[in-house]
TrEMBL record:
Primary location: membrane
Keyword annotations: Cell membrane, Membrane, Transmembrane, Transmembrane helix, Transport
The protein's name in its UniProt record: Transporter
One Pfam family per UniProt: Mem_trans
Biological-process GO terms, alphabetical: transmembrane transport
Gene Ontology cellular component terms for the protein in this record: membrane
Subcellular location: Membrane
Record's bilayer topology term: Multi-pass membrane protein
């Protein structure tokens, strides 16, 4: 509940500041610079280096990857049919393809599945959505932000992006089983802790909710994929695993949790990355501002539907 209030307050404050006379119109650029260069690298180093993997957690880890690849394919097709430009296609792919697991998911998982749900949620966030955002998300943003994408320009964009550099370092530390001393972890935690507030304020500063904007085809298709198609894909996968007895009875709740996780609103980090790469910033902001509140309803609807399976 606290996260929901924080979401509403930060987005509202951003909207108020956006309309305050004398307040810099491009203030969000400064916030994004702090997020991209300080907060995200700190959190990436802190969490990715601590990830551990187990076989029975495979579906939890793979769900974010499946969703992002599905999003990429879906919007490539839609963009060709409806003639979306590269900026719009990139923004939709990234924001609709990654769920807000840590921000929205944790309280919902705790409510529905208890402590075990939060533990699985942490794994889905750290080994799944966070890694997807820092790798596939950045690669996709680099690809769509280039007017004439080349392998050289994309690779340069990826390997000079601070969160990705931090991710590579963290993976190396994970492989050699290195753990930060407690005081270093505490410093990284404090550097990363402003992330949520700054990211939501930045999004709020850019949201322009009007009848014309909400009625735009790109936003409608983005919400359609995020809130309906994405969880439907994981739901079908869940049924297949259940039918083949791959997902054992005592673990069916994990499959259901993955469906609910897929139905959550867009990840604010994904929006920041899209905005930072100039991929239709108004659309990327709206995807966060609208999909998260709506997903609080749709995620619960999916949960109650899954009771019958």
């Amino acid at each position: 509940m606290a996260n929901l209030f924080l979401l509403i307050i930060c987005l509202s404050l951003g909207g108020i500041l956006q309309r305050t006379k004398g307040f810099p119109k491009d203030a969000y650029l400064g916030l994004n610079a702090v997020i991209i260069n300080i907060c995200l690298p700190a959190l990436t180093l802190l969490y990715t280096s601590e990830i551990s993997f187990k076989a029975n957690q495979l579906l939890v880890i793979l769900t974010p990857y499946i969703l992002f690849i599905s999003s990429f394919i879906f919007f490539r097709i839609i963009a060709k049919i409806l003639h979306f430009d590269r900026s719009t296609t990139g923004a939709l792919t990234i924001t609709a393809g990654i769920s807000s697991i840590s921000f929205v998911g944790f309280p919902i998982f705790e409510l529905l599945y208890g402590k075990a749900g939060v533990q699985m949620g942490i794994l889905m966030s750290q080994a799944g959505s966070f890694v997807v955002c820092g790798t596939l998300g950045i690669m996709t943003a680099s690809y769509y932000s280039a007017s004439e994408p080349s392998a050289k320009s994309i690779i340069k964009s990826i390997f000079t992006f601070p969160p990705f550099v931090a991710f590579c370092v963290a993976v190396c530390l994970n492989i050699i089983n290195f753990h930060f001393p407690s005081y270093i972890s505490e410093v990284l935690q404090k550097l990363g802790s402003p992330f949520t507030v700054l990211a939501l304020l930045s999004v709020g500063l850019q949201i322009n909710v009007s009848k014309a904007n909400i009625a735009q085809k790109p936003l409608i298709f983005g919400l359609f994929f995020k809130l309906l198609v994405a969880p439907l894909i994981i739901f079908v996968l869940y049924l297949i695993l259940l039918q083949q007895n791959i997902l054992l009875h005592e673990n069916t709740w994990i499959g259901k949790m993955c469906v609910v996780g897929a139905a959550l609103g867009s990840m604010n980090t994904a929006s920041i990355i899209a905005i930072n790469h100039k991929l239709n910033p108004p659309l990327a902001s709206l995807m966060i501002g609208i999909s998260i509140p709506l997903s609080l309803i749709t995620a619960m609807l999916w949960h109650y539907l899954l009771i019958f399976f």
